[in-house]
Amino acid sequence: MIRKFTYFIILCLLLLAGLMLWNMKSFKSKQINVPIATSSNINSKDAISHLSEAIKYKTISNYDNDQIDAITFLSFHKFLRRTYPLAFKELSERIFSNYSILLKWEGSTESSKNPILLMAHMDVVPALEIENWKEDPFSGLVENDFIWGRGALDNKSSLIAILESIEYLLSTDFKPNRDIYISIGHDEENSGLNGNAVIAETLKKEGIYFDMVLDEGSIITNNIFKGLQRPVAMIGIAEKGYLTIELTSSSNSGHSSMPSNSTAIGKLSKAINNLEKFQMEPKITPALEHFFSYIGPELDRKNQFIISNMTLLSSSIINELVKDPVTASMVRTTIAPTMINSGIKPNVLPSEAKAVINFRILQGDNIKKIKEHINKVVNDKDIEVKILASESYSNPSRLSNVNSPSFNIIHKTIKELYNDIFVSPGLVVATTDSRYYQSISKDIYRFVPLILNSDELSMIHGYNEKISTSTYLNMIQFYIQLIKNFHVS
């Protein structure tokens, strides 16, 4: 009996090994091969000068939307109209909430195709601690083949590259075969509630429906994913949700010489520690499955074997991914304590302590689940849990189609310009204004052709933000080629 059972176990193991080897053998590359596109003859010197000038405008998004610098934003509008006369003459222009711009490029009248939407934003985050910058963050300095300043990466380079591409195509008498909209938000860095949220709601009432929306989000990463010998252009097919929670701990006030065993600050600290210690369960989502299906075949044989059998080896894969903050954010809802406040004097026990916790919500989780998780982990009747009213919040986005004509066009365009990189769908771990268009768009993709390594990623919202002139000029070529490819689709 024992011998038969042993044979049975051996047979099962052999069958399992055979299945796993078959899965690996069936793991085929999804990369497409296309000829390199001929570069358009743009005026590189002028294009660089235009981005440099755009950076000089301090179009800063303040936390309080009422504190917007109207003169600067309206001056930036004038700069755009002066710099791109063909675009602002041939395309219709609408202004929303005084500052956000929507352009419409009308396509051929005989076309029945749905329009597409290209997105970028004019606002930037503040440039704090200027003493830590090597160059003035609003100088727009062009030096050693780099353009310096706040917005060089996020997101004026994309905005200017889109307008440069349109201006160039108009100069060649190009006319698209479908309507193309360009949304230029003014408050993306402050939730986009007065910009793209209003634009999207207006277009919905007007019956506009997009085949595709392309916004910022993912980039071309260089030396970030272990085991890959080439950069990866990740097209965001989904983005995480966003939620900010405020924890308020209450206790008796009094003199610091006679503290109780449980103070407001102590209880709040324990709650935060528990939330960091007992986080929500990591998981492999469909977005990550799509990422692995594109990247897995390009790895070495060992990792190909593991990824091709991700259903069987999911626990091992997750355990490896959670070791690094970058990859951990792809498999779990993240928690980040970002603000804490309490106390008025060193010798006075505060009666109240507050902390702000920011969550980026993974697909499969939602706001309701997070609140339930917090209440379970904190488990303290003296701590109030509430959604921060001053912050916008949203559940995770839906998944866009990786087999759609639009995804294939973006994939093809990337390969036509950057033939030595891998292309993959993936998850955007932050939020973008594109979330406001989910009800009026078939598919939403998030990608900007910026080539950055892990160190350079820190420049986004950090110090010494800059973009290489070659990367920026290639961005213009990307948008030109993308518009042409949609024209012939």
Tell me about this structure.
This protein has 489 residues and is α+β, with helices and mostly antiparallel strands. The protein has three domains: 44-237 and 397-487, Zn peptidases (Aminopeptidase); 241-271 and 333-395, Alpha-Beta Plaits, CATH 3.30.70.360; 281-331, no CATH class. 36% of the residues lie in helices and 22% in strands. The strands form four sheets. Strands 1, 2, 3, 6, 7, 8, 15 and 16 form an eight-stranded mixed β-sheet that branches. Strands 11-13-9-14 form a four-stranded antiparallel β-sheet, with helices on one face. Strands 4-5-17 form a three-stranded antiparallel β-sheet.
Concise synopsis of the structure shown:
With 489 residues, this protein is of the alpha+beta class. It is built from 15 helices and 17 strands. A hairpin with a 2-residue loop joins strand 4 and strand 5 (146-148).
Q: Can you lay out the helices and strands and say which pair or pack?
A:
Blueprint lengths: L1 H24 L18 H13 L13 H14 L1 H6 L1 E5 L3 E6 L10 E6 L20 E2 L2 E3 L7 H16 L8 E6 L10 H10 L4 E13 L9 E8 L1 E10 L3 E2 L8 H14 L8 H10 L5 H8 L5 H8 L3 H4 L5 E9 L5 E2 L2 E10 L5 H12 L4 E5 L17 H13 L4 E7 L12 E13 H4 L8 E3 H19 L2
Parallel strand pairs: 3-6, 3-7, 7-16, 8-15
Antiparallel strand pairs: 1-2, 2-6, 4-5, 5-17, 7-8, 9-13, 9-14, 10-12, 11-13
Helix pairs in contact: 1-9, 2-5, 5-15, 13-15
Radius of gyration: 25 Å
Beta-strand share of residues? 15-25%
Q: Mind describing the biggest β-sheet?
A: 8 strands, mixed
Structural class comes to alpha+beta
Number of strands: 17
- Mean pLDDT level: 90
Overall number of domains: 3
CATH homologous superfamily classification of the largest domain:
Zn peptidases
Rough outline: globular
Helix content: 25-40%
CATH architecture level-2 label of the largest domain: 3-Layer(aba) Sandwich
Low-pLDDT residue intervals, each spanning 5 or more residues? none
Helix tally?
15
CATH topology of the largest domain: Aminopeptidase
Q: What is the CATH domain class of the largest domain?
A: Alpha Beta
Task: Quote the distance from N terminus to C terminus.
Answer: 65 Å
